[in-house]
Amino acid sequence: MKVLSLIIALVMGALLTVILDDLPAWGDAQSPANAHVSAYYLENAYKQTHVPNVVTAVLADYRGFDTMFETGVVFVAVIGIMAILRREGVPKGAKSRKRPPHQPPDPAITGVATRFIVPFMQIFGLYVIAHGHYSPGGGFQGGVILGASVILMAMTGELKSALNRMSEDWFIIMVGLGFLIFAGVGLACMFYGGNFLDYSALAPLFSGTPQEAAITARYHAMLWVEIGVGFTVMSSMFAIYTYLASDGWMDRGL
Amino acid sequence: MIWPYDFGLLLLVVITAILALNLRDLMGASIVFGTYSFLMCLLWTAMAAVDVAFTEAAVGAGVSTVFFIATAYNIKKEAKD
Amino acid sequence: MEWLQINYNYLLVIVLLMIGLWAMIGKNNLVKKCIGMCIFQNAIIMFFISMGVKAGSTIPILNYTKIDGVKTYLTEASMYANPLTQILMLTAIVVGVATLGMALTLVQKIYSEYGTCEEDEILEKLN
Question: What is the CA radius of gyration of chain A?
Fold first, then answer.
C-alpha cells in the first residue's frame, strides 16, 4: 500500500508540475487575481466604510454571507461532536478500560502561572476583537485567544473547575448565540428596509447626513458582527476540547 | 525576501512535515505538527498576509495541537508505523 | 534557474501536496491520516496566499499621510498585497479546524468501539 501511495503521489506531483507555465509568475502585480475585484476593494473600502483594515472590512461587510455561514459551520461541527461523543452516567468497567489512570495535576507551578496569565490573555483577546478595524485581528483571532485561555484553565487545573466556570449549558447556548447575533444584525437591516446584511440600511440609528450615517452604520455593525463571531468561536474551541479530552464523559481531562 | 533565510525556512517546513508523519510516538508527532504550523505562520508573515498568519498561529500552533494531544492521550500512544 | 525563481512557491505547494496525499493514503494509523489532511489543507492555503503577493508591497492595512493637516488614506492598489485571497483563506482555516475536531472525534469513537487505531487491524475485525 505504501509503494502504491508513493506512486500516486509522484504521478500527481508530475502532472501538477506540467501545468506550472500557465500559472501567474511570483509577485506579478498584473495577474488576474490581483487586478480586478481586489483593486476595487482596496480603493473603495475606506470611502464606504471608514475602516482601514481592508481584510476585516471585506470579511464583515462585503462578504458577510461567507462569514455568517462559516460561523454556522463551526456551530454544526460542535453539535455533531456532541451527538457522536457525549455520554451519560458513570463509566463502567468494559467501556473505560482504555482510559489512562488519572493523575491529579500538581498546582504548585502550573496553577500559579495560570492564575497570572489567564486574565491577561482574556484582556488581550477582547482587545483583538475590538481593535480589528485598525490592526490585524477581528472576530476569529480574538475568539480563539479567549477560548485558549479557558482551555489553559482546564489543562492546568481539573476539568471540573473549568466546567464550573463555563458549564456545558452555557457553552452550548453561546455557540448558538454568536450565530444568532450575526443573523440578528442581518434581520435588523431587513426591518429597516434594506436587504439582508445590508448594513447601510441601519443609518436611521445614527446621526448626521444620510451618507455619513450610512458609513457610520457600516462601521458599527461590523463590530457587532465580529462580537457574534467571537462568541461562537470561543465557546466552540472550549467545547471541542472538553469533548475530546474527556472522551465524552465530561468528568476529567488531560 | 532575503534569499538564504527564505530557502532555510522552506526547507525546515518540508522537514518538519515529513518528521511529523514518521514519528512513532503520537505525542511527539503532535508537537512537531505544532512546530510545522508555526513555521507556516512565519512564511505567511513574510508574504504580507498578517491576518492569516495571526489566525494560523492561534488556531494551528495553539488549539489544533491541543486537539491532537487530547486525542493521543485517550488512545494508544504508539503508532505501528 | 529562471524557471525556478519564477515558480518556487508553486514547487513548495506541490511538494506539500504530495506529502499530504501520501500520508492520507499510505499511512496505517488513523491519527497520522488526520495529520496528513492538515498538511494538505495548509498546502492549499499556501497556494492561494502566494498568488496574492505583489513585489514590493506591504500588508493590506491602509496607510495615511497628512495633507494640509487633514488625514487622507492612500488607496493606491499596487501598494498593498491582495486582500481577497487572504479573506478566503481565513474562512478556510477556521472550517479546517472544525473539520479536524470532527475527524478526531470519529477516531476516538472508533478506538472505543474496536480497541485499535490501525487501519489493517480494523479491516480484519470487520471481516
Answer: 23
C16, C61, C116 member nearest B17 (Cβ): C16
The H or E element spanning position A81 is: helix A64-85
Whether the Cβ atoms of residue A226 and residue A126 lie closer than 8 Å to each other: no
Q: Let me know if residue B79 belongs to a domain.
A: no
Do B51 and C86 touch, CB atoms closer than 8 A?
A: yes
What size, in residues, is chain B? Answer: 81
* DSSP codes, A35-76: HSHHHHHHHHHHHHH--SBHHHHIIIIITHHHHHHHHHHHHH
Domain span holding position B70: 3-74
Cα separation, A144 vs C75, in Å, equals 31
Cα–Cα dist A254/A190, whole Å: 47
Give CA–CA dist A195/A211, Å, rounded: 17
Task: Give the closest residue to A117 by CA, choosing from A142, A153, A166, A164.
Answer: A153
CA–CA distance, C5 with B53 (Å, rounded to integer): 24
Q: Which residues, in sequence order, are bridge partners of residue C72? A: C65
Residue that has been written with the C-alpha cell 512535515 in this structure: B17
For chain B, helix (H) and strand (E) counts, in that order, are 4, 0
Is B39 part of any domain? yes
Query: Is B17 inside any structural domain?
Result: yes
For the record, the C-alpha cell of A248 comes out as 465524552
Mean pLDDT by 10 residues, chain A (254 residues): 90 90 80 83 89 92 93 94 84 59 76 91 94 91 94 88 88 93 93 89 88 91 93 94 88 76
**Cα–chain-centroid distance for residue A42?**
24
Cβ count within 10 A of residue A208? 12
- Answer whether C74 touches A (CB < 8 Å): no
Q: In chain A, which residues have their Cβ closer than 8 Å to the Cβ of B37?
A: none
pLDDT in tens, B20-61: 999 999 999 999 999 999 999 999 998 889 999 999 999 998
**Separation of alpha carbons C92 and C45, rounded Å:** 8
Interface partners of chain C (CB pairs < 8 Å, 3 or more) are A, B
> Does residue B37 belong to any structural domain of this protein?
yes
Q: How many domains does chain B have?
A: 1
Nearest CA in chain A to B55: A141
Q: What whole-number distance in Å separates Cα of residue A206 and Cα of residue A200?
A: 11
DSSP state for residue A24 in the 8-state scheme: P
